[in-house]
Design goal:
Blueprint lengths: L1 H6 L1 H30 L2 H23 L8 H29 L7 H24 L6 H28 L5 H29 L6
Helix pairs in contact: 2-3, 3-4, 3-6, 4-6, 4-7, 5-6, 6-7
């Protein structure tokens, strides 16, 4: 198994997708329960967001078959469409979060941990992009698009929490920063979806 993980890039992509699928499902149910118990719209929206991510991971895992690539186009097409839907869902989340000021307030130690985790995800995404620059696999590109959307959302979530957890930015400045970053993240996810959908039409890869 370890040797296959080292040598088979396709297999490695699927294994990582399974692990992320499990994590996103757990986080989706966690947010859903919090949303129901506290009647919080933002937690319900977060649950929908992570369920969509889980659905994309599940599509990549379910439709992929060992040693076969005929399902790749369908997988990539589904991921592209769901990323576009995701950009709309997240846009709603950003609006609700700003309107009801739902950004969580954390202590310094917790925020440092969140920032470390977020920048680690960013670093890993950049390393993966550089390492596999020129990769032609449509499946690999689709899974990477999901990863990039997760990183972008994590960055915005970290920014929102930092602005309410640390002194320095007034309410007006915070609203402007969150609005600009939120719009950028939504647009970024939308572009990822369009590019992924476009890749699904290619015959090669």
């Amino acid at each position: 198994l370890g040797l296959r993980l080292m040598e088979d890039n396709r297999y490695r992509v699927i294994v990582k997708s399974v692990l992320s699928l499990v994590f996103n499902l757990m986080f989706a149910f966690y947010n859903g329960i919090l949303g129901v118990l506290s009647s919080s719209l933002i937690f319900v929206a977060s649950s929908v967001y992570y369920l969509l991510l889980s659905a994309m991971r599940f599509s990549a895992v379910l439709l992929n078959r060992k040693g076969k690539k005929q399902n790749d186009r369908l997988i990539v097409c589904i991921v592209g469409v769901m990323l576009i839907i995701l950009s709309v869902v997240f846009h709603i989340m950003v609006i609700v979060s700003m309107k009801y000021k739902t950004a969580a307030l954390y202590g310094t130690v917790t925020m440092i941990a969140i920032a470390t985790f977020t920048f680690t995800k960013i670093t890993m995404a950049v390393i993966t992009a550089v390492k596999h620059n020129g990769e032609k696999s449509k499946l690999f590109k689709a899974v990477n698009a999901i990863r990039y959307s997760e990183v972008a959302v994590s960055l915005l979530t970290m920014q929102q929490s930092m602005l309410v957890s640390f002194e320095g930015a007034d309410e007006k400045t915070s609203v402007i920063l969150n609005a600009c970053t939120g719009a950028g993240v939504c647009f970024f996810i939308l572009i990822l979806g369009i590019i992924t959908l476009k890749n699904s039409r290619k015959e090669t890869g």
